[in-house]
Design a protein that fits this description.
It is a single chain. By secondary structure, this protein is an all-beta fold. 0% of the residues lie in helices and 52% in strands. It is built from no helices and eleven strands. Strand 6 and strand 7 form a beta hairpin.
């Protein structure tokens, strides 16, 4: 599922003062397409995934509005046609429609889709912004 040719480069920035609308984890879409974003994070001893946020070109979405309490946030993004924009090596569950899924194993057996999430190290920051960009030409 990971296609490095189509995979967008990602610019990560700790968001001290640069964080749109003071979100605590925001995703900004700097591509030319609408993107759908899912996130995952650890809640105690289980991973939880949530989605979808649809983000227009040159727009941002506040995907976590509480102060970050976890070091790692996982992100999977695809355009509205299903082309992967951001993926990684951490497999977690997603669903076609709006979802909150507890647990990251047996996705297919549980009726979900397995997706490769990108791990974002927030460096224990209270706020973070992730920028999705177009792949280089």
């Amino acid at each position: 599922m990971v296609n490095h040719f189509w995979r967008a480069s990602v610019l990560l920035a700790a968001a001290w003062g640069a964080n749109p609308a003071q979100a605590d984890f925001a995703v900004c879409n700097q591509t030319f397409d609408m993107v759908n974003v899912a996130i995952g994070k650890s809640e105690g001893d289980v991973f939880v995934t949530d989605g979808w946020w649809t983000i227009g070109p040159n727009q941002c979405a506040n995907v976590l509005t509480e102060t970050l309490s976890v070091r790692y946030v996982y992100v999977f993004a695809q355009d509205v046609f299903g082309k992967v924009i951001l993926s990684g090596a951490t497999r977690m569950c997603v669903a076609p429609d709006r979802f909150t899924i507890r647990g990251d194993s047996d996705c297919i057996r549980r009726g979900f889709i397995e997706a490769p999430f990108h791990e974002v190290d927030t460096l224990r920051s209270e706020r973070w912004t992730l920028f999705l960009t177009e792949p280089p030409a």
